[in-house]
């Protein structure tokens, strides 16, 4: 099937095979840093390139899945493959975020109706000229240089998470290349941890401005009649999404 990714990369992908599904439980892949499973599956599904989009192709004309392909495109490819295999309807189990409720609600999502943001031309230009984006934080007045999440950047995020624990500061620090002239990783993480709330928001917005792809924020309503809280939670592309019960 022909698909066009949010970055402009386009080509043909094949349908899932059982051997692709097996990779979700592959322990040797899970041990390595970076999004190994999704990159491996994308590489297997990709049959041929029609347009390279912003990427440099390898000698065989394929995207370099373990180098510069961005998460936004990988997510899109996996979602399209899932729609091909099992249709666009997916029921996810959400847990109400209201503490005294906490009820689980099964909520049906139509994957074809999720909003897809295409990469803006200036974002692609900046990506191609070194993948560097700048923001000056309003309170501390520091210049933060960050990157779009390529495979290599995600490897760095994993390294931060491994070192500093699975928290927001690790994930944000992983995408930052330098603060002013500071490039020492432990210093970058400390800088993120110490950010004032207003600076934090500015950094988050700067990420949001350049990020693109499938909008995975799902609005749902808690199924408890007394609560019925409207809330937004993330779509999870876990094993269930691909091979779990409908
Ligand atoms: Zn609730």
Q: Any chance you could write out the topology, listing elements then pairs?
A:
Layout: E1 2-4, E2 10-13, H1 18-22, H2 27-31, H3 36-45, E3 46-51, H4 71-86, E4 89-95, E5 104-110, E6 116-117, H5 121-128, E7 133-136, E8 143-146, H6 151-164, H7 168-175, E9 176-179, H8 185-193, H9 197-210, E10 213-214, E11 217-221, E12 230-234, H10 239-243
Antiparallel strand pairs: 1-2, 2-3, 4-5, 6-10, 7-8, 8-9, 11-12
The structure holds zinc ion (ZN).
Zinc ion binds at residues 96, 98, 101, 103, 222, 224, 227, 229.
Quick structural overview:
The chain contains ten helices and twelve strands.
Bound molecules: zinc ion
How many distinct beta strands? 12
User: In whole angstroms, how far apart are the ends?
Assistant: 23 Å
Encode the helix/strand succession as letters: EEHHHEHEEEHEEHHEHHEEEH
Q: How are the strands of the largest sheet arranged? A: 1-2-3
Average residue-wise pLDDT: 94
- Quaternary form: single chain
Alpha-carbon Rg, integer: 19 Å
User: Helicity, in percent?
Assistant: 25-40%
Count the domains.
2
Largest sheet: 3 strands, antiparallel
């Amino acid at each position: 099937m022909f698909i066009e990714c949010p970055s402009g990369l386009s080509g043909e992908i094949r349908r899932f095979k059982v051997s692709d599904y097996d990779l979700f439980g592959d322990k040797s892949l899970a041990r390595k840093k970076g999004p190994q499973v999704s990159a491996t599956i994308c590489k297997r599904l990709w049959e041929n390139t029609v347009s390279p989009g912003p990427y440099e192709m390898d000698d065989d004309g394929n995207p370099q899945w373990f180098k510069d392909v961005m998460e936004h495109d990988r997510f899109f490819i996996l979602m399209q493959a899932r729609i091909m295999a099992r249709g666009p309807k997916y029921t996810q189990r959400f847990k109400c975020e209201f503490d005294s409720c906490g009820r689980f609600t099964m909520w049906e999502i139509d994957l074809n109706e999720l909003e897809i943001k295409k990469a803006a031309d200036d974002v692609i230009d900046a990506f191609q000229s070194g993948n560097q984006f700048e923001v000056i934080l309003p309170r501390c007045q520091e210049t933060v240089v960050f990157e779009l999440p390529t495979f290599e950047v995600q490897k760095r995020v994993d390294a931060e998470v491994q070192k500093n624990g699975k928290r927001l500061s690790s994930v944000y620090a992983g995408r930052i290349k330098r603060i002013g002239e500071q490039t020492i990783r432990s210093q970058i993480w400390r800088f993120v941890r110490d950010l004032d709330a207003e600076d934090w928001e500015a950094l988050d917005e700067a990420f949001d401005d350049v990020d693109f792809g499938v909008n995975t924020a799902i609005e749902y309503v808690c199924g408890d009649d007394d609560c019925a809280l409207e809330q937004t939670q993330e779509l999870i592309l876990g094993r269930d999404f691909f091979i779990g019960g409908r």
